[in-house]
């Protein structure tokens, strides 16, 4: 339990720093001479691995380096990238909120949240945590697009 609390605290700290410094980080990442879509995915990968290590399923938590959910989340992020590029999104707030809501729906229908029999307060907590988790993995990659189009 203590390990989980420490991981959540570290994730929260990293998320707060990412919120504060996302534009300078995005500007530095964009200087890497790679296509924007590849930078987007490469930026998201360590965030997904870190986030999934905290929100993992007990059967593989701490036993694998690359979580089995990585591919699914990368596909979701790539769809988000394509939609944002096609719509020429200037600000990431709305796509980020939509991604979080869709993430909650995904976890409800495909994950364990839909089958969980928990008290209402715990369900609210878990849905908020899922939204924060999806925001965590998408914030910095989407910031690359915001910087590009702004």
Q: Biggest sheet: strands, sense, closure? A: none
Per DSSP E runs of 2 or more residues, the count of β-strands stands at 0
What value does the average pLDDT take? 86
Distance between the termini: 43 Å
Question: What's the alpha carbon Rg, rounded to whole Å?
Answer: 16 Å
Number of H- or I-type helical stretches: 5
Order of helices and strands: HHHHH
Helix % is over 70%
Describe this structure in words.
There is one protein chain. With 150 residues, the chain is mainly α. The chain has one domain. It is built from five helices and no strands. Helix 1 runs parallel beside helix 5, helix 2 (36-54) packs antiparallel against helix 5 and helix 4 runs antiparallel to helix 5 (120-149). The radius of gyration is 16 Å and the shape is globular.
Summarize the topology.
Elements: H1 2-30, H2 36-54, H3 70-86, H4 93-109, H5 120-149
List keywords for this structure.
150 residues; 5 helices
Quick synopsis:
Helices cover 75% and strands 0% of the residues. It is mostly helical.
